[in-house]
Amino acid sequence: MARESAKVNVVCQHCDRVYAFAPEAVTTACRCHHCGCLLFVGRPLSLGVLQLQHHIRQSGIPMLAVFWSPAERACQRVTKELTRLAGSIEPRMRLVEMNLKAAPALATQMGIRVLPTIVLFQHGRELARASGKLTLRALDEWTAGVAA
Fold this sequence. Notes:
Layout: E1 8-11, E2 18-21, E3 45-46, H1 49-58, E4 63-68, H2 73-89, E5 94-99, H3 105-110, E6 117-122, E7 125-131, H4 136-147
Parallel strand pairs: 3-5, 4-5
Antiparallel strand pairs: 1-2, 4-6, 6-7
């Protein structure tokens, strides 16, 4: 009897449906079976608070969440760097940006004290966190180190 391989959950950023894929089938060409949208778009996703919580709980792919504010200069620079990084880390990791000016209570809920703060989640748990100014090279090394 053949043993079924483990599946990886991928959440659609448009309709929030959850799909289970064989790990080797998760590619940048994957589409949502419900709304037809690409599951990976090569740029950071902007989610609402409830969507973020749903993605944290349901996603089997590591999710890198960037908590930032447009009023902070360091945040503007880091979000530009992360936009460059997004295309190279998908589909092994998903990048999400959360504007704390639009959702200030989220900072308290997530224990965010310094902006920008980058948090890696997987299977509903926080795995790692980094805060402050980070260059593209530092972000790339950090993501490679924590996802290993």
